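Operator note (shift B, R.M.): manual run for T9SS type A sorting domain-containing protein requested after the automated queue skipped it. Running by hand, logging everything below so the morning shift can see what happened. Input copied straight from the record, untouched. If output looks odd, do not overwrite the archive copy; leave it for review.
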Amino acid sequence: METKTTLFKKQDYLPKALSLRLLNKRISSVVIGFMMMAGYTTTKAQTALVIPDSNEGSAFIGPYGNAARQLQMIIDDTLLTSLVGKNLTSISFRLPASTATSWPPNSLTMNAFDIYLSESVEPSERQLNFAANVVGTQTQVRSGSLQIPAGALTVGSNPNNFSFKINFTSAWQYNGGNLLIEVRHSGTGISSRSVQAASTSSAGYGTLYSALWQSTGDVLQGNFTQVEITADGPLGTNSVKIGAAVNIYPNPVKDMLFIKSGQEFSSYSVYNMAGQRVASDKMTGKSINLSRLPLGSYVLKLTDKEGNTESAKFIKN
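Run finished. Output pasted below as returned.
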């Protein structure tokens, strides 16, 4: 039977929807927990922070090494003030400006790309011991394989863009303190790819940020991989409102999905239940052709020109 899905604002939630309200406190633009459990939400415009915020001239192969690696990036809290109280939702790396071609040449899948977040020691107190640098409890915010489309990391700019986001499968709220980002991956399975980094001789290395890594040998000091951290503001009384309630129909949908709203949206994205973006485009009207999507459950994210989003779960049949 055809039904209509309504995207509600926070103040419209009924008391019996307590579990959804609790879930929304942890919402991000592409959070898998939300995708699998909730049918609707509204999020604030995103904050993106680059560390270090400069055009560094060094490189490091850590995140996209051909063999399995474990690496830590330690960031001083003085660089993170714009993220306090926000939900961290993704990280991204970029190619050095000297890189001639986009990467990878063909789509690839890393069998494992796990990310852990926690507080950390001061960058100046970093040890070549992964466990010794962790303060408090590490939280795993991403697990499983990572699919990287062909040419996902782009070139042609100086510096190049952070063009491929590695989305977390659960949001993590940053409440202050030094931040530790730990990545454990299985390797690309092809040749390694260097990304832009700050060298160990950079002015901020060892005081504002630091890094270490290990492959098959000893734990070593490494260049600090320049990273873009994306965050969403938590939902609440100060959340950005996009406008009146939004309806999408029919749901389940076969071909055309229609949007009923007084709000103008500039683009849309569709994510599967693994958190992978499977479709996206600019909005040219109030309908989206989904005929090419395989059968299954998805999340539609609508974005306005200010970067605010509304999301809803739908079924393709």
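Quick read of the result: DSSP finds two helices and 24 strands in the chain. Residues 281 and 314 are 18 Å apart (CA to CA).
Leaving this for review. - R.M.
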